[in-house]
């Protein structure tokens, strides 16, 4: 490779996103005191650019503007330029995204914001083209205008930035409003169900026309709504909505039919043409949703999708030390000799290419049928490509096919006169062959940053899948990742989590010079993961660590005045706002997950003040939950669980005994949104017996494994029959 002409301070960072910009002609600084001091000393405006390494439009803006020598000179002369990886610093991203959304009505990445030297925003947007167009002002023009305004009207800009900040502080505050009780579950659940039902796409599943996102939070809500309304028409509809959506996604182009895993979202109504990046947080949550679909329906189709997701993550997003990487990019070079990357290049196929790779005649099929004919028919391949030009504005997918299974295997088999079992083997053979062919293409960029929160979501994916599918290997992989977190993203001296670590040279695991401390979401998703891992593995050490982290979360983030948890700690002077997220989006908001974490923590520890805290969170969000519950489906679900009280399912027995294993399998195979599982193994010196002395009074009946269903530590009569236990588990 040629020697880069420019190198800036980002060369010393660990984030893959910041390193991508280390050779721009822009004099980038990372977020920190050095940049802030320079802005104050030289009395310059700060230009803040926020993005992430697998963001398509971030790449575009870099190619067009940040690699331009001329634009770089304008930026360096008039501004102090700061680059932030939003996945490393969600706190910085959130503060300024709140500003951009409030002032422009939209948001997204790359985010471009101009700040006063004391970090107050006064202008902002997202992607800017380099030059003026018919409908948009170009980046160069914006830079020059802002530089001119700062010179001529500095006082007005400072005044306006102060007013904006005060308005943001006022509008973004979430606190308890006099009324101190959680909202009623039934009304909130019913309103949320009706709002989702209205936005549901009857034909293709999902909750909008386009673009269409997987939104696991909606599916999770629907499963819980069904569980609590199983005998009603509304309950049946909720289940049908969730299962149909999951089926359509699994058949669609949003799923990678050759290399497994799911892409970020679909650009169309049919789940066909995706935005091709793959995010760890989607794989983790979808593994849980498909596991739940399997628990409820017993349909092996859903179990196969779970296995697919976990195969992809194990193979392509796993560090050898046990952690999980963040994401794979959407863009890649079409061939090893290509000069420019294209979105989806790694994933799409020309019809001719498929014919060449799959020329074999198919035994037993109608005369002249080849493997290519069968595969191309099943996956909707067309000679001229199957991508609607309207969904391909840059013509990157022209003549190419995104695989989508339109018909059932039975229909494809009938079309070619094949047995369905034989068809399945043929399609598998095709997939293996195409997988080998695809491995010769240049791979998309892999973001090898390992984020505590997303590792937590993925641990839950492996642990819950391991429990629901009775696959011990998945539970072991979850435990390996949890051990990785404890080694690399936890500081035993302070008892605190760290946000991220990185794959270094020779596959070592590296930490930045000044490690970034964990945020609320890191604690919340890791605690949830540890509870899930305990239920799947029965290793009490994970419970002990979860309860320790819950105490630490209370100390660092709880708002004693307005209730609920702040997203960030107090005491960072560079953060102008201390916010509470108020929307369940691609990931659930941490306060939503925390409600159930606190209820579980109380069940495992006997600390009832955690139940009280859970109620206070719901009280703080009460107004939003009652008016627009569809923005917080995970918290609505938590409201229902709060009002229904968790069932402690306690199995007394030897964890290695067959009778105990049979009972545990029964408990794990049933989806019940308000159950907590624990095993009383008779070891009175263990952590659980120490936390919950009443366990010592529970005994095995007739020497057999025995289950008790307890609520607020009051227990049912003992049960030794698996059938009887199954009947008692429904909510």
Please count the helical segments.
27
Poorly predicted ranges: none
The name of the CATH architecture of the domain at 10-172 is: 3-Layer(aba) Sandwich
Radius of gyration: 27 Å
Gap between N and C termini: 62 Å
Report the biggest beta sheet as strand number plus sense, adding barrel if it closes: 5 strands, mixed
Domain Spermatogenesis-associated protein 20-like TRX: 7-169
Protein name: SPT20 protein
Pfam families: Thioredox_DsbH
InterPro entries: 6-hairpin_glycosidase_sf, 6hp_glycosidase-like_sf, Ssp411, Ssp411-like_TRX, Thioredoxin-like_sf
3D architecture notes:
Among the domains are: 10-172, 3-Layer(aba) Sandwich (Glutaredoxin), CATH 3.40.30; 347-440, no CATH class; 648-729. The chain is 47% helix and 10% strand. The strands form seven sheets. The chain has a five-stranded mixed sheet, sandwiched between helices. The chain has a four-stranded mixed sheet with strand order 19-18-20-21, with helices on both faces. Strands 8-9-12 form a three-stranded antiparallel sheet. The protein is globular. The N and C termini lie far apart (62 Å). Pfam families: Thioredox_DsbH. Residues 7-169 form the Spermatogenesis-associated protein 20-like TRX domain.
């Amino acid at each position: 490779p040629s020697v880069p002409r420019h190198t800036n301070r980002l060369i010393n960072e660990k984030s893959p996103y910041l390193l991508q910009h280390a050779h721009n002609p822009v004099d980038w600084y990372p977020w920190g005191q050095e940049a802030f001091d320079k802005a104050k000393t030289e009395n310059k405006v700060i230009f803040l650019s926020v993005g992430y390494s697998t963001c398509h439009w971030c790449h575009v803006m870099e190619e067009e503007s940040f690699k331009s020598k001329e634009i770089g000179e304008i930026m360096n002369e008039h501004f102090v330029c700061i680059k932030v990886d939003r996945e490393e610093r969600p706190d910085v991203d959130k503060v300024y995204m709140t500003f951009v959304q409030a002032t422009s009505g939209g948001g997204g990445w790359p985010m471009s914001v101009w700040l006063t030297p004391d970090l107050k925003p006064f202008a902002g947007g997202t992607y800017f083209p380099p030059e003026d167009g018919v409908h948009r002002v170009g980046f160069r023009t914006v830079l020059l205008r802002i530089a001119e305004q700062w010179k001529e009207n500095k006082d007005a800009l400072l005044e306006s930035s102060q007013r904006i900040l005060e308005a943001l502080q006022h509008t973004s505050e979430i606190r308890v409003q006099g009324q101190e009780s959680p909202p009623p579950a039934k009304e909130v659940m019913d309103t949320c169900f009706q709002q989702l039902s209205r936005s549901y796409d009857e034909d293709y599943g999902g909750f909008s026309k386009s673009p269409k996102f997987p939104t696991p939070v909606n599916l999770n809500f629907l499963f819980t709504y069904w569980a609590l309304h199983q005998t009603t028409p509304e309950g049946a509809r909720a289940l049908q909505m969730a299962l149909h959506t999951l089926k359509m996604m699994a058949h669609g182009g949003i799923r990678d039919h050759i290399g497994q895993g799911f892409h970020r979202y679909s650009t169309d109504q049919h789940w066909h043409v995706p935005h091709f990046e793959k995010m760890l947080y989607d794989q983790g949550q979808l593994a849980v949703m498909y596991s739940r679909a399997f628990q409820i329906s017993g349909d092996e189709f859903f179990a196969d999708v779970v296995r697919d997701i976990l195969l992809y993550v194990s193979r392509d997003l796993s560090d050898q030390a046990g952690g999980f990487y963040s994401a794979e990019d959407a863009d890649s070079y079409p061939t090893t000799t290509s000069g420019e990357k294209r979105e989806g290049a790694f994933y799409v196929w020309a019809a001719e290419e498929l014919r060449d790779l799959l020329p074999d005649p198919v035994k037993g099929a109608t005369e002249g049928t080849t493997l290519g004919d069968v595969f191309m028919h099943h996956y909707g391949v067309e000679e001229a490509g199957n991508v609607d030009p309207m969904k391909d504005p840059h013509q990157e997918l022209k003549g190419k096919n995104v695989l989508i299974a339109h018909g059932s295997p039975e229909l494809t088999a009938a079309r070619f006169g094949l047995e369905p079992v034989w068809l399945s083997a043929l399609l598998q053979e095709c997939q293996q062959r195409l997988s080998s062919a695809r491995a010769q293409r240049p791979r998309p960029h892999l973001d090898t940053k390992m984020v505590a929160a997303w590792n937590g979501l993925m641990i839950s994916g492996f642990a819950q899948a391991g429990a629901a599918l009775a696959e011990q290997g998945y539970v072991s992989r979850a435990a390996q990742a949890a051990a990785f977190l404890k080694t690399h993203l936890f500081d035993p001296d302070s008892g605190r989590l760290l946000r991220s670590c990185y794959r270094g040279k020779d596959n070592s695991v590296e930490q930045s010079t000044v490690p970034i401390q964990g945020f609320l979401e890191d604690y919340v998703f890791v605690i949830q993961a540890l509870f899930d891992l305990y239920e799947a593995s029965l290793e009490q050490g994970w419970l002990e660590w979860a309860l320790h982290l819950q105490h630490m979360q209370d100390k660092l983030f709880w708002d004693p005045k307005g209730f609920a948890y702040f997203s960030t700690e107090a005491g960072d002077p560079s953060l102008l706002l201390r916010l509470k997220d108020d929307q369940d989006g691609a990931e659930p908001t941490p306060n939503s997950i925390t409600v159930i974490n606190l209820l579980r923590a109380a069940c495992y520890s006997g600390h009832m003040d955690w139940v009280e805290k859970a109620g206070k969170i719901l009280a703080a969000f009460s107004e939003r939950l009652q008016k627009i519950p569809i923005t917080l489906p995970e918290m609505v679900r938590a409201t229902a669980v709060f009002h229904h009280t968790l069932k402690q399912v306690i199995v007394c027995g030897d964890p290695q005994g067959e009778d105990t294993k049979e009972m545990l399998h029964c408990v794990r195979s049933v989806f019940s949104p308000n159950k907590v599982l624990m095993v009383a193994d008779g070891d009175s010196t263990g952590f659980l017996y120490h936390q919950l002395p009443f366990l010592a009074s529970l005994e095995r009946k007739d020497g057999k494994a025995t289950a008790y269903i307890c609520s607020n530590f009051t227990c049912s009569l003992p049960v030794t029959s698996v059938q009887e236990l199954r009947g008692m588990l429904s909510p």
